Amino acid sequence: ADTWTVGGLTLSSRVLLGTSRYPSLQSLLDSVDASGTQLVTVGVRRIDLTESGGTSLLSALRQRHSAERPLHLLPNTAGCYTAREAVLTAQLAREALETDRVKLEVIGEDETLYPDAIELVKAAGELVADGFEVFAYCGDDPVTARRLADMGCAAVMPLGAPIGSGMGLTNPYALRILREILPDVPLVVDAGIGTASDAALAMELGYDGILLNTAVAGAERPPQMAAAMRHATLAGRLAHLAGRIPRRLYAEASTPEAGRIELRP
Amino acid sequence: ADTWTVGGLTLSSRVLLGTSRYPSLQSLLDSVDASGTQLVTVGVRRIDLTESGGTSLLSALRQRHSAERPLHLLPNTAGCYTAREAVLTAQLAREALETDRVKLEVIGEDETLYPDAIELVKAAGELVADGFEVFAYCGDDPVTARRLADMGCAAVMPLGAPIGSGMGLTNPYALRILREILPDVPLVVDAGIGTASDAALAMELGYDGILLNTAVAGAERPPQMAAAMRHATLAGRLAHLAGRIPRRLYAEASTPEAGRIELRP
Amino acid sequence: ADTWTVGGLTLSSRVLLGTSRYPSLQSLLDSVDASGTQLVTVGVRRIDLTESGGTSLLSALRQRHSAERPLHLLPNTAGCYTAREAVLTAQLAREALETDRVKLEVIGEDETLYPDAIELVKAAGELVADGFEVFAYCGDDPVTARRLADMGCAAVMPLGAPIGSGMGLTNPYALRILREILPDVPLVVDAGIGTASDAALAMELGYDGILLNTAVAGAERPPQMAAAMRHATLAGRLAHLAGRIPRRLYAEASTPEAGRIELRP
Amino acid sequence: ADTWTVGGLTLSSRVLLGTSRYPSLQSLLDSVDASGTQLVTVGVRRIDLTESGGTSLLSALRQRHSAERPLHLLPNTAGCYTAREAVLTAQLAREALETDRVKLEVIGEDETLYPDAIELVKAAGELVADGFEVFAYCGDDPVTARRLADMGCAAVMPLGAPIGSGMGLTNPYALRILREILPDVPLVVDAGIGTASDAALAMELGYDGILLNTAVAGAERPPQMAAAMRHATLAGRLAHLAGRIPRRLYAEASTPEAGRIELRP
């Protein structure tokens, strides 16, 4: 089977799913199921970690985990604006959720929610040194991406477009460069994906996974979009492996002339 | 279940698959299976219709047909350059394959294999009058497309790019216009698709199906690409139905500020 | 100097300008001047050809013509929906405007204003036989374009996008194919251009000219946009002739490493 | 006249031109003239600043400067990989060229020549504090760009694509975001431009200028491409000011139906 390994996990699904902003908890859980995801991000600053009801988000997600159908948690630092804030949030998450994995998000801009490269690198350095498996949400510039990879991040996760924009992969050239210069580190397109063809394209570029939230949670029918994303990642991954035909401005008949037989009279 | 009706058939698969140019008959058959297609085109001028061996293309395809898993034949007029030639080929196909369906292809240009709008319309008119279910391969201009629809063609099938080019949907705007002005006729993207994201995009534009040949037959591993296309059409169709989020240049946090709770000390 | 020949005229400007829909006659005339055009289209069905006042459109345009700064008229058949209607309009225009040139426009679709390939080819055949210099507004399909060129049209003028849409060159691949298969016939992008970079791109694709109307007439400041288009055609044409650098995903330093000298201590 | 102010200079030309990699000094000087540039960058590490011959690059450029046709020098730190190296190079340039202006380039990646955001910000801070007018070459992420602007850089200069790639504006969305969030700081597209339409597009996005080197120096005929770029910036700027028509998928006739008169019999 086609699996990939990231942060100590071996996964068959290539969808990472965010859990914020769904119309209801049921819609969220149905989307988790329909997407086939095995790794969901949870905003540590958003949820009440002391909450203990069986209907809470965390317990609902945990109940879905089983040996045959694993569902892992990936706490994130959404809402953090400085390295210090992000590191503290990650440490809090480690204790509360009992995992070394963290999706590191350090926002530098209120309007666009772009990551702050300087604070991000600083936080990533501290967290890697502290034993975390860091999934780093970053821009698409190759210098920052290579630095994060060299520091030992578990995954480098460039944006395709601003968070929640649904603009898709606005710069596939930049994403292609990242894949070329970082052939061995897990690369995940994080943010910007709006629909299925965006997800397929990310896979065709050779990315290892995609991380979605608004595209699913904000769709008119979230579970249906989640299912679309499951098929889209399978499609794009299979197409990547299948070896596509080259692009030509114009080509040749699909029914070759050589094979023509004459019309009988 | 999500089905569509075209030329008297009700189909659950949205992949129409061409059968020319595969590396081997086995590769072709494996691709047919992997794609999930229920409608395959066969070049009438290319195959020897009098051939009767159990290993021939036609008999192999026919053996795959069953009530639970239907596989219909769609003879095509590939290699025809005039209305007269295409009409004769269609009539020959009707007799030999015992079907009223025909994919009408009237090539007007040897280099680009673009359809000839004038000969195409002429042939379509004659064939519709003669009781055929005409699947018309055409350019992406709305005047010709509307004329074909008004004449009673079973499906209007604009190209995304030249046959065999793998360029994808070179003019999604033109394709979108066709869908808007022809909301009720079956529309299929025929020619140009190169990889999975192209197929997903066609579905997202609201097209009813895609017709593939070179993208699968010319891939390094045809059956794997066929499987990719199956998932891609499912993905794009589901995304179309799910109601995607709008595109915004930049948007809002996926973890809304309102939901932030303070870090505990 | 860089000139081109079309329909018996040798022109240094590559802007063909339409004259409908300006906020005022003065705005139109200022735009004509600012664009540097030497060939303006006039809608024969729109103007009153019997009108004789010195302020009329035709006389104002004619007064602008001089030996040093020629300004030729190109009557058009805008608003015609059939070959017969277009041929009659062209003949009327020939008598009224005393020119054999005609921009042939046969609309096939009220919503998109796409040309009707069948009626267009029919009208072009009759007009060429009748001694007209036919400037044919067509779609971007190579079969129709080649047919128009082979029939002896003075210029083949594919659309970049629907009339008045401002969408730019929605299918540069199709336009490139036309240039490749028709290296010798004057090719003009007609319709769709919205702004200066669209015009430059048309020239970079090797087109001989562009035809504009809405982009100028509908701009907030028409004469300023007309000036932009003059510079844009010069820019694109010069770039085409200058031989651009190839595109590479990433390349090399603009200051080569070999030339580095050491920093002095 | 349409001028802009940057780093204490008021300029009418919006082309900044690099001076490396031309086939000859004559070709370079002809390109400077043809481009109309008033600000040329000079690689300090590349040239021998102690050189004193009248034929040298610096003296040739200085001889071109006059009150009517100013030509200013902008030393750059191309080839620097750390903040320290860049700051030292800038200080050396200030002494040698007697100008406070510096194009700050701190490369972080040998393959792609992308800027290193962290070292760039560090160097910019030191140089601004030391009284320099800093023209900062950066990526297209809004956090770094805003930081450079807030620090007091004279110009923020995001790349359109990697240096020397000729890929054009690979992410116009990101460039548009920068213009929106930084309406008042001089913004210049630096790197990536390959041909005239790229330059026009940069102006249409509201950028204040473009910086070119390889696109001109590497063209088959550099002075001709330089002239193309002059026209392209004029074109794009005029179009930006003229107020373009909105884009519509399809629109309305350029000759409105209301104005139709009947064909006379």
Detailed description of the structure:
Four copies of one chain form a homotetramer. The first copy, chain A, is 38% helix and 15% strand. The first copy, chain A, is of the alpha/beta class and 265 residues long. Chain A has a single domain (4-243), classed as Aldolase class I (TIM Barrel), CATH 3.20.20. The first copy, chain A, has a five-stranded parallel beta sheet with strand order 5-4-3-10-9. In chain A, strands 6-7-8 form a three-stranded parallel beta sheet. In chain A, a hairpin with a 2-residue loop joins strand 1 and strand 2 (9-11). In chain A, helix 1 runs parallel beside helix 9 and helix 4 runs parallel beside helix 5. Mean pLDDT of chain A is 90; it is low at 253-265. At the A-B interface, helix 3, helix 7, helix 8 and helix 9 of A face helix 3, helix 7, helix 8 and helix 9 of B.
Indicate the topology:
Four copies of one chain form a homotetramer.
Chain A (H helix, E strand, L loop, with lengths): L3 E3 L2 E3 L3 E4 L6 H11 L3 E5 L13 H7 L8 E5 L6 H15 L3 E4 L12 H13 L3 E6 L3 H10 L3 E4 L13 H10 L6 E3 L5 H9 L4 E4 L1 H4 L4 H21 L23
Parallel strand pairs in A: 3-4, 3-10, 4-5, 6-7, 7-8, 9-10
Antiparallel strand pairs in A: 1-2
